[in-house]
Write the structure tokens for this entry.
Amino acid sequence: MVHVDVYNISAILLDIEGTTTSISVVKDVLFPYIRQNLIGYIKDHWKNAELIKDIDSLRMQAVEDLKNGLNVVQIPDVDDDDEGKLQEAIITNVLDQMDADRKTTALKQLQGHMWREAYHSGKIVGHVYEDVMPALKRWKAAGKHVYIYSSGSVEAQKLLFGATTYGNLLQFINGHFDTSIGPKKECTSYTKIANECGYQAHHILFLTDIPEEAQAAKNAGMKTILASREGNMSLCKEMVREFGEIKSFDQISLL
């Protein structure tokens, strides 16, 4: 196994899907759960204050999308007398966003609340690769801080790492970031994260499976390595030369 030496690192920033967690689990378990339970969840929680806020966020996102020229289903006001029409619009809007693989904060917020129920009921258990927990323990023992940055909501992140097949891993994680701090392919998002963590960007190592994210982080001054997990898209030689490549966190040596 080829080891990658990384010097002068104080913190590690981790992507989730394709980096700590299998893409297949996200696509084959988490997303299908939303599709299969969306109608029932909305009906069961219809007057719940949390769902009302989620609907408000989806409504505002739809209005913004329309202004930007996107053909999206608009969501009527909550006061609309036709609950069936309103619920149908919400369901269609959410499923359309998922079909388009959108990562809006409004969508991720609703998904996170649905996954919370699933984790708490035991219907879903969080998946992480077998090398993740040992690496988190190793980094913590070395005095490194670990942060998560994912398109999934902070709540969804905490649910996943709080109920994994290896137990609760939140004790090893110092903080969480989602797209509310900015899109994952924009340099400014990583600058904000570095500031929030209290580190200079060049003291942070970012691990992701997405080259565009790695490039954005590198442009912000972070050190980056691409994760090449089973099931991920293959990396071209140019990307490997640019960022480096690991198949396991065991390959990383922080010096």
